[in-house]
């Protein structure tokens, strides 16, 4: 194990990489279900598009239970799947594919150097309680993930590790002791 750890650390520290691989999913639905388009990436199917001609009950099986339903601190495929059913993102994948399409953002632009992204949000989006969705909600969501000093940055801390993997740092990282 020590040799494996040494090799893994050497790769991490000296070779630039972007992780593209992921494990396969084994999803099962009842045969009577229609409008099913399994996601090419784990957890990208959308139950809201499925139909059950008999009774509107979706019977679904997946690999395991989600570890968390706090989506900003999730890191496992089963939690991502649950989060994908209950939360919309600014951008999404096309049903049954990997083409990027609009989600909560109806359009977006990227600066030439790729450091500034501007999103135009869909109008008329509301939360389950009827309150309106706006840009402040997007900012709050990003802040609770990436700013360790945010009072909303809570959870197990395991999924927040992805923030480091993808972005290389937290804001106010000294407040993240132990993550």
Brief overview:
Helix content is 23%, strand content 12%. The protein has four helices and six strands, in the order H-E-E-H-E-E-E-E-H-H.
Count of DSSP helices? 4
Q: Total strand count, please?
A: 6
Share of helical residues: 10-25%
Structural class: alpha+beta
Gross geometry: globular
Radius of gyration (Å): 19 Å
- Please describe the biggest sheet, giving its number of strands, its sense, and whether it closes into a barrel: 2 strands, antiparallel
Low-confidence stretches: none
Give the CA-CA distance, first to last residue: 23 Å
User: What is the succession of H and E elements?
Assistant: HEEHEEEEHH
Strand % is: 5-15%
Lateral arrangement of strands in the main beta sheet: 1-2
Let me know the average pLDDT: 81
């Amino acid at each position: 194990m020590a040799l494996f750890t040494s090799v893994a650390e050497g790769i991490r520290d000296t070779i630039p990489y972007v992780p593209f691989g992921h494990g396969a999913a084994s999803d099962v639905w009842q045969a009577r279900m229609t409008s099913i388009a399994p996601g090419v990436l784990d957890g990208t199917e959308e139950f809201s598009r499925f139909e059950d001609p008999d009774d509107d009950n979706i019977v679904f099986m997946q690999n395991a239970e989600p570890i968390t339903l706090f989506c900003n601190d999730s890191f496992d495929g089963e939690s991502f799947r649950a989060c994908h059913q209950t939360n919309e993102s600014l951008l999404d994948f096309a049903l049954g594919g990997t083409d990027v399409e609009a989600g909560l953002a109806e359009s977006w632009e990227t600066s030439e150097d790729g450091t500034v992204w501007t999103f135009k949000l869909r109008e008329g989006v509301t939360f389950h309680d009827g309150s309106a969705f706006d840009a402040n909600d997007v900012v709050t969501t990003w802040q609770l993930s990436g700013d360790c000093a945010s009072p909303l940055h809570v959870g197990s801390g395991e999924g927040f590790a992805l923030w480091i993997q993808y972005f290389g740092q937290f804001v106010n990282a000294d407040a993240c002791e132990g993550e």
